[in-house]
């Protein structure tokens, strides 16, 4: 098992790094980070076999690149770049061979098809409009989609930080059709979303509000019911914080999010009625944790701290959801994306 970490390339990072996973249980640790892919600003990426689909910030152009991993490094298979900023998020459907990107700066959502070799074909794009912009400085300049991926029923969903909205789409006959919209509270800063195991609820995190909103919904009728909202940071924390990544355990019992500023991961238990109960807030032992992730068994969790160029490894208790740090101060530069791989 290995861990891939990529992020910004503004200081010393060269792209995507691979860290070997050594040992097991409380004796587990990550080895030295090795740069395996040189690419500009791989702040988010996905993997399918030996193919890496990564954000590529190529100076005056931005987009995604497809790289094939080999025994002696990597080679670029294809790229799709356009003038301006690169996307913020990359989603994937490995069975349908589809890639989804959300561009925070240009407000463009894109769908690509890829063949087994990794060659890309643009399927369709839509651009979010400035319809319900929030009052915060990060919102007043326009829509900012930060997430674009699949729903439990195979539709598509985006999270728009500028508009405070969750938007649902259908991809049919190569065209994106807007189906429905859920509006978060003004200034929420809608960023990432996860779904309950039964597909009847979603949990959406607000970057600007540092809150998680629990919503009951019906993916046939598009009825929404606001259930509850929870702070991801302590009420008495007054410094700047931006909530970032959001994950739910595969058994549907625990929700996790990272907090950039409070520099923590918050763990919530999902109650029988789908409300949340705070279980734990634990330090990330570094500054500005954007992404974190777990292995296939969800036994180990790794978080990357962007500003302090380090990562932290935890062991996860599947019975109560808690995280216990087993290795801190793991050197890796400018990390914003974490992915376990074989």
Automatic annotation (TrEMBL):
It holds the Pfam family Lactonase. One of its GO terms (cellular component) is cytosol. SUPFAM superfamilies: C-terminal (heme d1) domain of cytochrome cd1-nitrite reductase. This is 3-carboxymuconate cyclase. PANTHER family: 6-PHOSPHOGLUCONOLACTONASE, 6-PHOSPHOGLUCONOLACTONASE-RELATED. Belongs to the cycloisomerase 2 family. One of its GO terms (molecular function) is 6-phosphogluconolactonase activity.
